[in-house]
Specification:
Blueprint lengths: L1 H6 L3 H15 L2 H11 L11 H26 L2 H24 L4 H6 L5 H20 L3 H11 L21 H31 L6 H23 L6 H31 L9 H26 L11 H29 L5 H29 L14 H14 L1
Helix pairs in contact: 2-3, 2-4, 3-4, 4-5, 4-7, 9-10, 9-11, 9-12, 10-11, 11-14, 12-13, 12-14, 13-14, 13-15
Length: about 400
């Protein structure tokens, strides 16, 4: 092996040997130590000439940079990969420049005055690196731009915001915080589904129906995964157990909101789009508007599951109750109008059935929102509130009354 090294004088071959040996050893320090042991001392002639050994050291630097680049390609971020590639490019530039200089007697001319071979070798290597680095500093900005164009981030598909993750790896308190944030995302998606469903009622065609079906189905899939993750959170703390229960209750009602949206889609899924009279559309529009307002108000409760804001301002609670009662009254009035139309033969049986079912499901969504508000706010409300006793029971009485009249 030593004899093999001693016979080679070609700088390019020496650089390649130094790189290959370093890649095998996984250590440029090991290659350097080997070379230093073969160049002798000031009193003993070495196996390898110092002017040749410098190229092996350059090759060792190249091999080290290649190894580093290979490892970082698996384990670091995008900028880390760019830095590793720059390290390789720097080593290649060093080898190229001094490979060309091998045509001259640059080494002995510049460093021949140093008698100790190992010191001469290391000094030459150090100064060479500093020199090339100094020459490259003004061009770092342009090199960076070039590397950013060469090594671009992968184009990833947009991550579904509904996608859930396991909470088991986190502490219960952190899991609750993450689950609460994810619940808010699910709620907003349910609002979007409601909005698109309500727009479908007045649309001229059902062309968006298939897309909306798929969106609702996708929503339910991820919501079920979310519920399973939340249910798996284990804690002996009473407060955390209450929080888990709140999240699951709200999630259940959110699921019912989208389920009722799907029922409206099923109801409107006819070959020919059916339109209602201007007066009936006015009733539906009012219910839809009221329910949308309820959804907006309910956001406050989803953002703060403890409903601490109720200690200072309870107007949102009262507003939810009033809108729920108003929707029930509108539903009753619209049914009265339908009965009058049927009596006057102004409405077909199909339109009659479709309208009643659509209005009923919209009213159910209104009640689902009320359920969320009542479930979350019950602990914060005190007996001093004049409307504390108003609950879903009263709304149910209104519904029962209208059913009797019907």
């Amino acid at each position: 092996f030593i004899s093999f090294f001693s016979q080679i004088t070609n700088p390019i071959v020496l650089i390649l040997l130094g790189a290959a040996f370093t890649i095998l050893l996984q250590s440029s320090l090991g290659t350097t130590a080997l070379v230093l042991s073969l160049i002798g001392t000031s009193s003993i002639v070495g196996v390898i000439d110092v002017s040749n050994a410098i190229y092996i050291i350059f090759g060792a630097h190249l091999g080290s940079s290649i190894t580093t680049a290979f490892i970082t390609s698996f384990s670091t971020n995008l900028n880390g990969k760019r830095a590793a590639i720059f390290h390789v490019l720097f080593s290649i530039i060093v080898c190229f420049v001094f490979g060309l200089l091998s045509l001259t007697n640059w080494f002995n001319a510049c460093f021949g005055w140093i008698k100790q071979p190992s010191f001469r070798l290391i000094t030459a290597y150090l100064i060479s690196m500093i020199l090339i680095a100094g020459l490259l500093i003004p061009f770092v900005k342009y090199i960076t731009i070039l590397l950013c164009k060469i090594i671009k981030p992968r184009k990833r598909k947009n991550k579904n915001p509904l996608d859930v993750y396991e909470f088991s790896d986190e502490t219960p308190s952190i899991s609750i915080v993450k689950a609460s944030k994810k619940l808010f995302i699910f709620y907003n998606e349910a609002r979007n589904i409601y909005k698109e469903t309500s727009e479908l009622i007045f649309a001229e065609t059902n062309e968006n129906l298939k897309k909306l079906y798929k969106k609702q189905q996708n929503f339910n899939y991820y919501l079920n995964k979310f519920n399973a993750c939340v249910a798996d959170i284990q804690s002996e703390s009473l407060e955390i157990s209450k929080d888990i229960n709140k999240i699951l209750i709200v999630s259940k009602h959110i699921e019912r909101i989208t389920h009722n949206c799907k029922k409206i889609m099923d109801n409107l899924n006819t070959e020919k789009k059916i339109t209602f009279s201007a007066k009936l559309n006015k009733y539906l529009g009012k219910v839809i508007s009221n329910t949308q307002e309820m959804l907006d108000i309910c956001q406050l409760y989803i953002q703060d599951l403890d409903c601490n804001f109720l200690l200072e301002d309870t107007s949102s609670y009262e507003k939810i109750i009033n809108l729920s009662k108003l929707n029930s009254e509108i539903k009753l009035n619209s049914k009265t109008q339908i009965i009058e139309n049927i009596a006057k033969s102004k409405l077909s049986v199909q339109k009659n059935s479709m309208y009643i079912e659509t209005a009923s499901y919209l009213n159910m969504i209104s009640n689902n929102i009320s359920d969320i508000v009542f479930a979350l706010s019950s602990e914060k409300l005190t007996s001093t509130l004049p409307y504390q006793q108003i609950s879903l029971d009263e709304i149910d009485l209104v519904n029962q009354d209208e059913n009797n009249k019907e």
